[in-house]
Design brief:
Layout lengths: L9 H22 L1 H31 L18 E2 L17 H6 L8 H7 L9 E4 L8 E5 L4 H11 E2 L2 E2 L31 E3 L1
Antiparallel strand pairs: 1-2, 2-3, 3-6, 4-5
């Protein structure tokens, strides 16, 4: 007696594989994994910027002068736009006093941040570069921590702060002018996709 074996034919298997492939492509297109990764990086960088800005504010509140100043007798002459990145052994001096701002924030009995945090944010292989801006004319000037976003959603946020549908906005107060570079890559870009040079600045 002949028994018929049940199973799938090769054509049926190919159809199932093709359907699964189409569904996988549709899901990947919907979630855009590269955008999700970049958004995660930007969120981490924003968190680092907030922590660093908070540390600068706490340092100023406790001592009456900024961490780039030698003491409260110094003038606030911070460089207007300083990138806080290099290697783990780089001393980054901000301002005329030549004080190592990051070392001052991470040392002493009342260190504002851990040394491991400083080592990480200045390592180009681990993080997006942060930049600090301070007007430098008065001790009460606002301090900003800025970074160039990697994700489309963060880039749109930066572009909207710099641009009004392709027309450069008037910047608020002492907002760093270099955060909104002129030209087709930021403030005058027609869309946020073209605004690759705009910076997210906190606060």
């Amino acid at each position: 007696m002949f028994l018929r074996k049940l199973g799938f034919t090769m054509i049926e298997l190919l159809i199932v594989i093709a359907v699964l492939g189409i569904l996988a492509v549709a899901v990947l297109a919907a979630i855009n994994p590269i955008e999700q990764i970049n958004r995660g990086k930007d969120t981490g960088t924003r968190s680092d910027a907030e922590q660093l800005l908070s540390a600068v504010d706490r340092y100023y509140a406790g001592r009456g002068y900024y961490p780039w100043m030698a003491d409260n007798e110094s003038e606030n002459l911070a460089a207007a736009w300083v990138e806080l990145q290099g290697t783990a052994t780089t001393t980054i001096a901000v301002g005329a006093d030549g004080e190592d701002m990051l070392a001052n924030l991470s040392s002493g009995g009342t260190s504002e941040v851990k040394e491991s945090f400083i080592t990480r944010i200045i390592n180009a292989e681990q993080t997006t570069p942060l930049r600090i801006f301070n007007e430098g004319s008065l001790s009460s000037d606002s301090t900003y921590i800025c970074f160039t976003p990697k994700s489309a959603s963060f880039r749109e946020e930066a572009w909207k702060r710099c641009s009004d549908d392709g027309v450069a906005r008037a910047l608020p107060g002492d907002f760093p002018p270099l955060a909104c570079p002129a030209g087709g890559t930021c403030a005058t870009a027609a869309t946020s996709d073209l605004a690759t040079a705009c910076f997210i600045c906190l606060p």
